[in-house]
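User: My collaborator sent over this chain with a note saying "see what the structure looks like." That's all I know about it. Can you take a look?
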Amino acid sequence: MRLRHIEVFHAVYTSASISNAAKLLNVSQPSVSKVLKHAEDQLGYQLFERIKGKLVPTKEAHRLHDEVAKVYSHLHSLKRLAENLGHASGGVIRVAVTPALGLNIVPMAVASFLKNHSGTRFDLETLHLSEIMVSLNEGKTDLGIVFDPPTYPNIRDYELGKGEFVCLAPVGMRLSGSEKMTLRDIEDTDFIKLNGRGPLGRLLTQQIEASGVQFNTVANVETYHMAKALVELGAGITIVDEITARSNSDTEIQIKRIHPAAKFNIKALTLESEPISLECQNFIAHTRSVIADFVAHPVDGA
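Assistant: Without extra context I'll predict from the sequence alone. Here is the result:
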């Protein structure tokens, strides 16, 4: 099948009529019918049948569409990439960052970087890891900043820093008097748990399962800041990354380090197949120093 055949077949299949397909493709109905017939002649079998006035895909069309949908998706990504490459311009650093790092760390890095690089402009977006990967591959983003990503093909990673998990508890809740506490110390308290869909959630779940501790989980949450907010409101305790624990800490909560410590990485991601600008390299180095300074200060309450 030619690319035009794929485009017309996909439009007819998804819209269920020649007229709707013509509107989607912004062409005439005879043009759609002609391309579709040419595709059927080339393939040697029918793709659609007229049944009671309706256009119905044949069994061959159903099987073919499973693969055509994949090709069409790749074509859409290719189109997006071509458009985004045209929009990219020198002096602009396009950054996608996970929500927890987008609250304090990245704004601090951007603001301080701009003081010494007045000609630079930033295009900032907050996304989850899977969305950042799509954005990188489509050429929409130059740089992703994330927690503990897995290894991806065609992705280069740069270590920006390390952190560790800490325990958050409401003010007034009696905790272990030692500087660091074990998971056993908080086993009998109401627990707010991060789900295991993100890198940090999976890492934390593995540590908890390995410890054999059974928490009384009162809430499962997706974002670290929601877990922190629930603690501030007295709903229970939680375990989050120390970046979240320190971010916008204008409310009083108890923060305790955990023994044994569970560490995580903070990394910058770029496309391996694409060279990054000198300005982007400088921003990576600058963000590394911002993170080092941020985590160097003692955790309040520890």
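A starting point for your reply to your collaborator: The chain has three domains: 3-87, 92-160+265-296, 163-264.
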